[in-house]
Design brief:
Distance between the termini: 39 Å
Strand order of the largest sheet: 2-1-3-4-5
Number of strands: 9
Low-confidence stretches: none
Structural class: alpha/beta
Radius of gyration: 18 Å
Largest sheet: 5 strands, parallel
Amino acid sequence: MSRTAVEIATQPTCWRRAAEYATGFEGLPLPGERVAVTGCGTSWFMAMAYAALREASGQGETDAFASSEFPTGRSYDRVVAITRSGTTSEVLALLGELRGKVPTLALTGDPKTPIMDAADVVAVLDWADEESVVQTRFATTALAFLRAGLERSGRLADGVKTVEAAAVDAELAITEPLPEAVTAAEQWTFLGRGWTYGLAQEAGLKMREAAGAWTESYPAMEYRHGPISITGPNRVAWMFGTLPEGLAGDVTAVGGTVVANESADPMADLIRAQRLAVVLAESKGYDPDHPRNLSRSVILTP
């Protein structure tokens, strides 16, 4: 079993620990604050998911940006940065530019890195750090930590489960067989709405990183506006969350396969996509722990 597969299976435990950690943590966004969330790659997609979920929960205007594209001229009450390695150049540069201008919180997996001095407050999720280059459990644990902060501060958006309920769903997602139509497909399109669009983006990235697979990601309602043209036999449209009315019929009408685990927490459903990425990588003879052309952190030379 690859190290990535082992790390994927630990996510329910990691999420529960993150929820407990968030209970007494000082520095999480407060209701009513105007917040920006940032990161690179996978961390950016988790930022997108949290931003949409926080705003939908009525806890305050929340934006998400790739760290290299952050609009530093805007005014925020707090900035949250997600960085597993604690060494990502764009994140460190951004926090340096924001120092003294706005309170900052960083989430990291490694407390022995420059991020500890770059942010005003740091949440160390070191139990969720990974040996694999490919991020799986750190990303979802960071999102679980932020979700638990929303639970602590007030109501959640309609239909959104607690972190504990998501962990229960995750236990099933780790063990249940993946459908043959999914593992045998030649192309996968991941779809989401609201906060699950960030998860769809992350699912596509995992498949590209680990397995070199042809994947795309879109907001679910935008899928009809062009991208559905690639759908057909042996191709999958995978929805995170509730399917929009009529979408399943549109996909099947052109010969595509619909995947939608509507009763499962979308973050738990992401585990299935992570597992699929590992299965496909191994079927091609790839090492999912060490994908081609990737490193644990992008550190730019000055």
